[in-house]
């Protein structure tokens, strides 16, 4: 007999049955351990480091602080859902992280990529201070943030260029 | 700095892209905590709530009644050696009779769900008889031993020169360094899988697979061949993963349950699950002539090693080696002691003893400069060692020791704009940051300078070799090396070396595991030199065999060919043979294994003299800070650095190492400290243990000083540690400059600047 259905959640456009779950499981745990979506990371599991960042109905959240049982009906997007095409497709932010050397151990990287997407959706040409403030909820222990700030600047200016081109 | 975008896209000296970059930005890179296996169980560790206690009894029956629990193991269940340790095995795998620090592992549990495992661990009844904890390093010397091995890990002196020599100018100070946590973002994690042959496979995030295997096999009572380790993706390390954490526990549980077992530490557990940077108390007295030339340095260092030995002994050797820094000192008399206490164990962290010493000696150099009326940079130049000069332990600096060049290069960086003068201009650039708490008229700017030296590789006679295997087959180069990639970019370097040597585009770095020989630890700034050297030698051996074959086939003299720009050509530039590598390797299957060893070193003698270290790297840092002298808030505006790197192999990765290392030095300077209360960590979370954020990070200016080391296989020195060493004293010197407060302790807290003890 199949395990009893606990609830159903939508992640990256797909519906997933979550079965036989403990009610206290975080969205982070369910994504990682039940759905095999391990892109969101478990660095502090108390909402301090941003490595588990995902979108829930378009809002950037720390998935470690969200009970999975509270998200049925919502649309969850994880790092795996940023590049729907699969393969080796990269977003402009992901490409900028590579080009500027913003990746070292990479544990903070998925969360930072999500945060930078969120920032650039809200503010297409953020000041350096706005970038630093937006990133202040994401801890990185390897880079000292220098290359990450450079990556954000590159992605932002890339988008500004694209906007200018399309406005012409 | 500006990274030059060269046309060349491969080989050494170029910012080649990381091979693991794409999976990392896509969230697909498999870290140890991402591992999953059908039917796996979850492990959990029960930890002691006392810093010092006798264990009267352990009753696991409550845990075994929790549904879904498959094993509960205590000290009695360890089949082999009951203890582990990097240098001496003095730490119990699971505490049996006595617990010696708060958080020591007492039992481990495996269950079908991590929450069940937690509940089961909580249901184990342990009766403790609490004992008075020994938490003051100074008292450890005279106290009743808290371990059969005693309370002193090592005591040593460095003594040289004319004991009667004194200088007319003297400065003396006592300095303290708090306990720093490595705080890698990836928590301790692993997955152990029982094997059919009675052995076990362990996938784990570590810095050193082979030493983990040695210790794990000993505890399991198994032949090391039956304990096979593979590196799981490592989310940073910085020293925290050099010791055993969950390796043995996981294997015990997997062998007991015959099921795969996964364990991931929580952040709070991570704080007690790995070693920290040694807290230190250092007293130094510097005497100089009236020009500021050092005559004599004397003093004492006391390091708190915590409950178990870990790497306390080599940490002390480093701290003592660099007690006076990279300066010429004729007369030295320094004593160093590292002791056992009931504080959490201390061991490796980036900088490894050199950090604590540097904070003290650079503060002293500034005080000496003031006492002599000499500019602090000039004072350092006057005393700076050069190639061939002797360290205080009697060894001479090698040919690559560009300290003066490094100091001068650092001072050439431009200074930042003055602090903002009006709130409208950008209040968040003020020390209060986005809190907007700082009034601009309270802001004082300060500038500080510091210099450091670090040894590379293991010391005192250790033969920390590295092994690499290269195979050229079907047009692909596969390099196997057990060196742990922890984020630093060693895998990129492997690609660069293999491509440069063999001229082959398709390079694969095989998973790091224990199927090949030892590569040594990813620590001590050693992998570029040691494993880079082994990879280079293995690739060169394959290349030489390939060239010999081509020479035979073309009937030209052996040794007359070389690989250049993807082609095999005559070394004399002749066009006798001009063959594309791609064509030459068709159908070829060649392989070679090579071991790289560094030159031998010797232990320190009774006077602390010898040839203990392999090589050295120096660095200089200049920090600019803005301090709110009303609130005691500090903003580090800029850190400029020049670093002796030997040779830059990948400019972008080198820059990333230096920026990241400076952020950790900044952390120690102004915010990072594990707060202890009677041996208990009071801030074991990222809420309370402050790691620098993007708002705290300073502008960083970097200059590489390139004097290739003739002993280094690639000319390159390790670059990971120096940025963390002198950035801290430079920042504190800048705060002193801004405030006039002596500041003898790091991290500097607001109350040190404005509180009653600040003297301001």
Q: How would you summarize the topology of this molecule?
A:
The complex is a heterodimer of chains A (168) and B (760).
Chain A: E1 5-11, E2 14-19, H1 27-34, E3 53-56, E4 59-62, E5 75-77, H2 92-99, H3 109-122, H4 128-135, H5 146-167
Parallel strand pairs in A: 1-5
Antiparallel strand pairs in A: 1-2, 3-4, 3-5
Helix pairs in contact in A: 2-5
Chain B: H1 21-25, E1 41-47, E2 53-59, H2 61-64, E3 69-73, E4 83-84, E5 91-92, E6 98-99, E7 105-111, H3 114-122, E8 125-130, H4 137-140, E9 152-160, E10 169-177, E11 189-194, E12 200-204, H5 209-220, E13 227-231, H6 247-257, E14 261-264, H7 267-273, E15 280-288, E16 294-304, H8 312-321, E17 331-339, H9 354-372, H10 376-383, H11 403-411, H12 423-426, E18 443-456, E19 466-473, E20 476-481, H13 490-502, E21 507-509, H14 527-553, E22 561-564, E23 567-570, E24 578-580, H15 581-584, E25 589-596, E26 615-628, E27 633-644, H16 651-670, E28 676-677, E29 680-681, E30 699-705, H17 722-725, H18 727-739, E31 745-746, H19 750-754
Parallel strand pairs in B: 1-14, 10-31, 12-13, 16-17, 20-21, 27-30
Antiparallel strand pairs in B: 1-7, 2-6, 2-8, 3-7, 4-5, 9-17, 10-15, 11-12, 11-14, 15-16, 18-26, 19-20, 19-25, 22-23, 23-24, 26-27, 28-29
Write a concise synopsis of the structure shown.
The complex is a heterodimer of chains A (168) and B (760). Chain A has 168 residues and is an alpha+beta fold.
